[in-house]
Amino acid sequence: MSHLSLEASQVVMSFAGRPVLDGVCLSVPGGSRTALLGANGSGKTTLLRVLSGALRPDAGEVLVDRAPLRHSRSGLTQHRQQVQLVVQDPDDQLFSADVRRDVAFGPLNLRLPEAEVIERVDESLELLGITDLAGRPTHELSFGQRKRVAIAGALAMRPCLLLLDEPTAGLDPEGVDEMLVALTRLEEQGATVLIATHDVDLALAWSTQVAVVTRGRVLQGEPAALLGDADLATRARLRRPWVLELGDRLGLADGDPALTGVRDLDSLAAVIDRERLSASGSRAAREEGR
Amino acid sequence: MSHLSLEASQVVMSFAGRPVLDGVCLSVPGGSRTALLGANGSGKTTLLRVLSGALRPDAGEVLVDRAPLRHSRSGLTQHRQQVQLVVQDPDDQLFSADVRRDVAFGPLNLRLPEAEVIERVDESLELLGITDLAGRPTHELSFGQRKRVAIAGALAMRPCLLLLDEPTAGLDPEGVDEMLVALTRLEEQGATVLIATHDVDLALAWSTQVAVVTRGRVLQGEPAALLGDADLATRARLRRPWVLELGDRLGLADGDPALTGVRDLDSLAAVIDRERLSASGSRAAREEGR
Amino acid sequence: MALDTAAWSSPWRHRSVADKAVLTLALLATTLLLPVWPTAALSAAAALIVLLGPARLAPTVLARSLRSPLLFIVLGAASVLVSVSWHDGPRVAITAQTSTQALTVLGRGVAGTLCVFVLAATTPMVDLLAGLRRARVPEACVEVASLVYRLLFVLLDTTRRIREAQAARLGLRDRRTTLRSAGTLSGTLLVRAWGRARRLEEGLAGRGYTGALPSLDPPGRVSIGFLGATVALVGVIVVVSLLGAGPR
Amino acid sequence: MHIAEGFLPPLHAAAWTVAAAPFVVHGARAVVRERRERPETTLLLAAAGAFTFVLSAIKLPSVTGSSSHPTGTGLGATLFRPPVMAFLSTVVLLFQALLLAHGGLTTLGANVFSMGVVGPWAGYAAWRLLCGRHRGLAIFTAFALADLATYCTTSVQLGLAFPDPVSGIAGGVVKFLGVFALTQVPLAVVEGLLGVLVLRLLADV
Fold first, then answer.
1. What angle in degrees, to the nearest 10, is found between the helix axes of A114-127 and A173-188?
2. B 61-90 residues with CB below 8 A of A?
3. Distance (Å) from the alpha carbon of C220 to chain A's nearest alpha carbon
4. Which whole number is the average pLDDT over B255-281?
5. How many Cβ atoms sit within 10 Å of the Cβ of residue B238?
6. How far, CA to CA in Å, does C37 sit from each of C240, C244, D5, D158?
């Protein structure tokens, strides 16, 4: 896999006369980790479907490495080997009786020789740490397992870009951590990953850039800057990540809504500790000075 | 509505020979707010179904106000006027083409006079803030709206106890807040509310008691104590709420895993501020003393 | 489902089902029973005026919904137009008789379809089923039909998502894969439909479901004015048709 | 393809309605009885109806260039039995007429007769005759035959309504068979294959 960039340019999309996306521009640089945020019904999923080629926008374009996606049969076939979408409900994506057969579905459709199909299936299962599930019937799997099998199925297409709709929704906290580990692995293998999520804390901790869908448009930028913006949060029915909120409340950022470098519990604890140290340090210095 | 208590006593339940609940005891006092936590597949949903009367346990009992639930027709009819379960996927509960008809279903089954049915429907819609949806077709509603209609449908039965499976899953942050406001309203009306959730932060902030399902058993206790227990968190595939984690990291609790009184961002910020004040206060005192 | 969506937001949505059914059926009856010309043209025009006027159906929705029935009507009319025989070798011909007959089915088909739109674009299925309930159609049948309506949308959504997922993994690439995908899609759908039905049953049991689905149906108040207008409209069509067709 | 509204002469429309009525009433009776005895079947029946409706929206590989969809009558007949299919088809056809403008109200009887009576019974008969010998073949034949029988019946209905001025009813039927049924032969084969795939998947699950 090599790093490809993905771009939406002026995408307009409406359903039954109701506009959902109204001139969306989004740029996902190769090798980035993008978190897509937005309220229920804001058009996140629609945007993902447009990016994956499942929907043809009313206007505008989707570009992979600057080349516009053609909605012809061959154009889509090519696009689908580069961009894969994993939908929210794994049951929509698992339709074979057992795990191995399901993951093999894509490679078989690529008309690959059997040896390569098997290799890809094994590799995908391995990457998600579910090799032991290979022979299991799909309907016996737990929710978290089904989610990972669905990702393995997309992965077997060896996409350069992986779009995931709410990959952590419905998972228990440990399942969320495992999912993040799997996503990090994918990234190390060279895939560019974009996730749509409602979890602003996760978005801040995980992503290198954030895109917020609101009123049919997309705002995109540095995670701390965008997620720390209280006005934007209100407009987009989001809330600010708790580390930014707490940092702000404690006056750590000196008026800057986005504390530089703080993105998770560890970094926040470090900043607070440093502040304490410097407070006691200056006290100690002052005490010594007397 | 009056406050009733709900209890599970030594409940054993297995599916296809696989034990899911293995002697569960849970007590939900009237007027309490209980959060039920546990990993995917730990049996949370099964327990809710047993409590609601939908499943008959292999052994053990469900008691409402100390009276055991009888799984006869009349026993269940009575139980369902006291205990209502709202499942996770609203489409499993909404069967009518429009909102008003759907909410009216329960009261009609109670064979109430039409005027009272209408009164209950209006009241339920009002309580959830969805009066404007009354005439809308179910299939056109958004996910969050469908979730609230499902709750309204349960509410129209005027239960004393409301059990909700993942009421905030899949909602955007503002939707989560609105859901919590609605739950608080229900409680003010006299309903005892139990929710199953994966969100440990929400559990700490919202509940008056927490129950954790792990290995077929339930542990129940004070939210901060149970959720602050690192061992339990690992065993139950949970994580500790971030306020407890951060408080611990900052050494605020002096070795006590559960910081007394800290349950959300506001209380944590207050504690940190107080610590700062006392530090600078003691400094000032010391400085004055010299 | 554009017609159904239009019906939910139609300004005539809260008119009694009986009113709308009488108008539709009266128009249909005149179209089919009276001489085709000018009746078909008149009732088609009347239906169009009703749909685009007081019922405020969007012309684009009307045009889109007409497409598929038009295909059948045109294909059927073309078959009627051409006469085939094989007594002395296969022979194809168009005669005055066949062209008259083709025009007849064309006129009646288009007019009839438009008349049905009057009901379809103003009355959501639930109201219609409530009407059937009042008309003494067995409760069980009406209930099954109303559940079909709700599950329809849930299943259509599922179908769409599964098909997109199959397409994404190139499952619709050629005939062979498309057939295989259609097979797995149908099977998966059946399993999902079953599971949904079971869970829905449990969900309803919690609210006291015992097999019957009582429904809060708003009372349908028949409007004398509306019925009067219907009688007048159909009356005019009948009189004009009989006069217009008279000389022939 | 269902016969559009207004397409059949009133007498024919009435006659086909009368012909279909006993089957539908019989099916409806079965539904009423079933609900009285086992209330839980109401939801299963509804799921079957919704499934039958949605099935006709599934795209099959195109043979002639235009897109095509399964009729689903074969699947319905083997899974739910013909009497129930007569009732479910009526519901589905009514929905198709009003939601999608496929078919019509006065032609409902004729369409129910072809899709809800002849198709399912033909498929079911083939299934019962062959299932003892070869399962795959039985399914294939049941599905393909149910599909073909449906369209042949439609052609006969149209041929009876619009006999050819020269060659009479036979000519009319042949004409409509050529337009509506002949093009359906490859699609019937596809639907037969689909049936084999579906039932194999269901056997796996």
1. 130
2. none
3. 30
4. 76
5. 24
6. 10, 8, 17, 22
The residue type found at A181 is: V
d(Cα A153, Cα C175) in Å, to the nearest integer? 22
Give me the residues paired with residue B210 across strands: B35, B221
Please name which of D47, A150, B100, D80 lies closest in space to residue C154, comparing C-alpha atoms: D47
pLDDT in tens, C147-196: 999 999 999 999 999 999 999 999 998 888 998 899 899 989 999 999 99
The 10s digit of each residue's pLDDT in D116-135 is 999 999 999 999 999 888 88
In sequence order, what are the residues at sequence separation of 6 or more whose Cβ sits closer than 8 angstroms to the Cβ of residue B206? B33, B35, B180, B183, B195
- CB contact under 8 Å between C199 and B77, yes or no, is no
Those residues with Cβ within 8 angstroms of residue C200's Cβ, 6 or more apart along the chain or in another chain: B91, B92, B93, B95, C151, D43
Q: Are D146 and D162 in contact (CB under 8 A)?
A: no
pLDDT at B257 over 60: no
CA B148, B151, B157, B158 torsion: positive or negative? negative
Taking CB atoms and an 8 Å cutoff, what residues of chain A touch C9?
none
CA D112 vs CA C104, D16, D98, D135, D182: distances in Å: 24, 9, 15, 28, 21
CB-CB contact of B120 with B159 (8 Å) = no
Domain boundaries, chain C: 2-130+223-245, 138-206
Ordered domains of chain B (ranges, CATH):
6-239 (3.40.50.300), 241-290 (no CATH)
Tell me how far CA of residue B287 lies from CA of A288, B275, D83, D205, in angstroms. Answer: 12, 18, 96, 78
Helices D73-80 and D135-161 cross at an angle (nearest 10°) of 120
A179–chain B nearest CA distance, Å: 13
Interface of A with D (CB under 8 A): 97-98, 137, 139
